[in-house]
Amino acid sequence: MINTENDKVEIQDLHLQAFGEEEGPVIEKMTAEFLLLPETISINVYRGLRIAGNILFSPFKLDDHPEKKCFLLAPLGVLPEHQGTGIGKELIEKGVYYLNHIGADAIFVLGHPSYYASRGFVQAKVLSPHHELMKHPEAWRMLEVKPGSMEGIGGASVAAEPIMDPMFWDTSGRPE
Ligand SMILES: CC(C)(COP(=O)(O)OP(=O)(O)OC[C@H]1O[C@@H](n2cnc3c(N)ncnc32)[C@H](O)[C@@H]1OP(=O)(O)O)[C@@H](O)C(=O)NCCC(=O)NCCS
C-alpha cells in the first residue's frame, strides 16, 4: 500500500505501457500527480519482484451529499504481458476489500462498460464531472461498497485535481 519512490516510477511506467503509445503519456502524468497526494490509495499486484498491475482510488465528492465517502477508480492498468490473466479482477477485489474496511460508501469509474459490468458496477445516477461531455453514459459506472448506501443519490460530482481536466471526461471519441 505504501509506495517507495522506486515503486512510484515503476507504477508510472506500468500505466504508460498498459495504456499504450496514444493514451499512455497522459495517464502516466495523471498517475504521477495522484501518487503525490497523501489521500490517494494505491494497490499493487506483483508477479515475481515486478509490479504487474496497479489500481488507484482517489476521493470523489458528491455536491449534494458531502457526507458520502466515495472514491474514483482511475487508473487501472496491467502490464501488457500479464493482461487477461485475472490481475485486473484481483486489483478491483483488493480495492473493494480495502475500501470496505475504511468505511467507504461507493466507487465510481469511467471505463469499458462490459468490463466493469461484469465486476458488478452498474450505471451511475450521480452525474460525472463535466457531465456535458458524457456521450456514452453506460461507461460511467458505480459500485456500492456499502449495500444500499447510494439509493436515491444523484446530483453533480467533483473528482480530485489530477483528473479534473475535461479531456478525461470527454467520451465522444469512444466507439459506440
Ligand atoms: C483493462 C485491464 C485493466 C483488465 O485487466 P486484466 O488483468 O487484463 O483483466 P482480467 O484478467 O482481470 O479480466 C479479463 C476479462 O476482462 C476482459 N477485458 C480485458 N480487457 C478489456 C477491455 N479493454 N474491454 C473490455 N473487456 C476487457 C476480458 O475479455 C476478460 O473477460 P472475462 O473475465 O469475461 O473472461 C487491462 O487489460 C489493461 O491494463 N488494459 C489497458 C489499460 C486500460 O484500458 N485500462 C482501463 C480499464 S477501464
Automatic annotation (TrEMBL):
Gene3D superfamilies: 3.40.630.30. InterPro entries: Acyl_CoA_acyltransferase, GNAT_dom. Coiled coil: none annotated. Residues 1-139 form the N-acetyltransferase domain. It comes from the Bacteria. This is N-acetyltransferase domain-containing protein.
